[in-house]
Design brief:
Layout lengths: L1 E3 L8 H15 L8 E2 L10 H6 L5 E3 L24 H10 L2 H9 L5
Parallel strand pairs: 1-2, 1-3
């Protein structure tokens, strides 16, 4: 199960989650199936963090800044105006230690 913060079939963001599920199905030759639930279908739209943490869903498609109330540093792991661009964020995550920090931040939440 993948929950999203976006309404079902929401242009760009919601459709992106649905497309991801299709690609996983195709690339795994049907061995992996992801059921996508738009915001409000399985849980309230902004409760994806808790849903995955508690095992209600396996994945959440949302933006880390929505979880700032859980841990303010989550905002560093989302695209923000005047923040890092995609290339800079990927460089930081995969070459600058950012991914290890992200994992450390989410570990207390069972994520």
């Amino acid at each position: 199960k993948m929950v999203t913060t976006w309404p079902p079939h929401f242009p760009i963001l919601g459709i992106g989650a649905e497309k991801f599920a299709e690609w996983v199905d195709q690339m795994s030759e049907g061995r992996l199936k992801i059921q996508v639930y738009g915001g409000g279908e399985l849980i309230p739209p902004l409760e994806g963090f808790d849903a995955v943490s508690q095992g209600v869903a396996e994945m959440c498609h949302g933006a880390a800044y929505y979880w700032a109330g859980k841990a303010p540093a989550t905002q560093f792991f989302a695209g923000l105006p005047f923040g890092m661009n995609a290339q800079q964020q990927n460089a930081w995550l995969y070459s600058g230690g950012g991914l290890a920090l992200w994992e450390e931040l989410y570990e207390p939440f069972n994520l």
